[in-house]
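User: Please fill in residues for this 179-position structure.
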């Protein structure tokens, strides 16, 4: 296509000639679409950016000066710049390091760790106030998850006795913790 023909169409577009704009689109859109597609790598994005390119051409046609160079490179530069701007405007894809920053830290903070350690020491002190076999039964039931029946068999006591031991031990622990 002759550069003079494109330059003439751009001149008419500068005067808001819609037929000239349509002719310019028909003659240059395949080349400008290819530029957008090569940069963006996605047909849908390239089509959208191509529309924006032609809006800019419509708005800037009066700025084109044939004396500064041929028309097609001017049009191609608009398409190229618009495509690059679209890439820059996209939200960047997070790298692995960036996604690591977005992960919530599930570990307790220093203050919470200190509180948990303090509570642990208080529980240990209260457990020392219980008889040794009662304290071990509480640990076995509530830390190791043994059932009343398993504890009754382990300590060779009736099931209801084991329930009473645990209930009374928990009451004593609660009273100690409340002090």
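Assistant: Residues filled in for all 179 positions:
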């Amino acid at each position: 296509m002759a550069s003079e023909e494109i330059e003439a169409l751009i001149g008419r577009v500068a005067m808001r000639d819609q037929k000239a704009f349509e002719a310019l689109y028909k003659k240059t859109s395949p080349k400008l679409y290819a530029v957008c597609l090569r940069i963006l790598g996605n047909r849908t994005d390239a089509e959208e950016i191509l529309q924006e390119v032609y809006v800019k051409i419509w708005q800037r046609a009066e700025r084109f000066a044939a004396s500064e160079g041929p028309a097609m490179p001017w049009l191609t530069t608009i398409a190229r710049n618009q495509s690059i701007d679209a890439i820059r405007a996209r939200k960047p894809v997070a790298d692995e390091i960036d996604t690591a920053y977005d992960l919530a830290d599930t570990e307790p903070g220093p203050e919470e760790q200190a509180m948990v350690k303090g509570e642990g020491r208080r529980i240990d002190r209260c457990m020392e106030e219980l008889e040794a076999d009662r304290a071990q039964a509480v640990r076995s039931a509530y830390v190791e998850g043994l059932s009343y029946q398993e504890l009754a068999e382990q300590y060779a006591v009736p099931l209801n006795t084991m329930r009473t031991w645990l209930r009374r031990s928990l009451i004593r622990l609660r009273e100690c913790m409340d002090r």
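For context: The CA atoms of residues 18 and 82 lie 22 Å apart.
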